[in-house]
Amino acid sequence: MQGLGLVKSLAERERELTQKLEEAKKNAEAKIAEARAEAERILREAAEEVQRLTAEYTEQIEAEVKRIEEEARKKAEAEAQKVKSVADAKLEEAVNAVLEEVLP
Q1: How far is residue 81's CA from residue 89's CA, in Å, rounded to a whole number?
Q2: What does the alpha-carbon distance between residue 21 and residue 32 come to, in Å, rounded to a whole number?
Q3: For 1, which DSSP code?
Q4: What CA–CA distances, in Å, run from 48 to 9, 14, 61, 97?
Q5: In whole angstroms, what is the distance from residue 13 CA to residue 10 CA?
Q6: How far is CA 93 from CA 81, 83, 89, in A?
Q7: Which three-class secondary structure string do you get for 60-103?
Q8: Dihedral angle over CA of 52, 55, 60, 62, nearest 10
Q9: So what's the pLDDT on residue 42?
């Protein structure tokens, strides 16, 4: 009879270990699911941050391009005004020289 008690005890122990193993498996699966959800959340947030930064930098680049274009336009206008002033002065000199030659 002792042998039967030992078998029953071993069978009970096996059931307990099987139950613990199933619980551990369920816990592991739940942790894996949590980790996957967390990873997806992190990836989503990272993608959103990339989009936000891309938009922000695009705006900054566009503003800088506009600033540079405006600066270049102003410099070109100033240079054109200088050239026009020099050309006007030379034209006036040329006209006076022709008039001196033509008129006594």
Answers
A1: 12
A2: 16
A3: -
A4: 58, 51, 20, 73
A5: 5
A6: 18, 15, 6
A7: HHHHHHHHHHHHHHHHHHHHHHHHHHHHHHHHHHHHHHHHHHHC
A8: 180
A9: 98
Token pair recorded at residue 10: 């071993």
Place of tokens 């967390």: 38
**Which SS3 state, helix, strand or coil, does residue 104 take?**
coil
Taking the C-alpha atoms of residue 91 and residue 89, their distance in angstroms, rounded to an integer, is 5
Query: Distance between alpha carbon 62 and the CA centroid of its chain, in Å?
Result: 15
Q: What is the mean pLDDT of residues 24-48?
A: 98
pLDDT tens digits, residue range 67-94?
999 999 999 999 999 999 999 889 888 8
11-34 per-position pLDDT tens digit: 899 999 999 999 999 999 999 999
